[in-house]
Amino acid sequence: YQDPEGRLGPGLGAWVRAVEYATRSNALIMGKPSRCYFETALHRLGTAPHETVMISDDPFNDLPGAKELGIRTLFVTGGKYRHLDSKAIGSLPVPPDFVIENITQIPF
Predict the structure, then answer these.
(1) Contact predicate 69/35, CB 8 Å
(2) Cα 40 from Cα 29, distance rounded (Å)
């Protein structure tokens, strides 16, 4: 990853792999986009997937895991992937259900 000063360094994935190697074990990934993460969120919210919406500015790491469980997805283009145009969004491996520019446009 690149830090605020522009220096490159190992990201979280590299650290996890290093710990796995050192301990000869496999990590259980609990964060996005793992299925377990979203199942836990649904349980804590007390909602069914069809009653839930995942709102994110990351269509690559946040939304696919939610959509896999049947959770509706809303991509906010004003975040870190603001450079994506409608054609790029439509060709994502897992396109979002809704696209808005900022959270004030949430239609729910």
Answers:
(1) yes
(2) 13
Residue 79, amino acid: G
Tell me the C-alpha distance between 92 and 106, whole Å. Answer: 21
Q: Provide long-range contacts, Cβ within 8 A and 24+ apart, for 48-55.
A: 53/98, 53/108, 55/103, 55/106
Edge-to-edge strand order for the sheet containing 72-76? 53-56, 72-76, 98-100
Note down pLDDT in tens along the chain; length 108 residues: 787 888 888 888 899 999 999 999 999 877 777 888 999 999 999 999 999 999 999 898 889 999 999 999 999 998 778 888 888 888 888 899 999 988 888 877
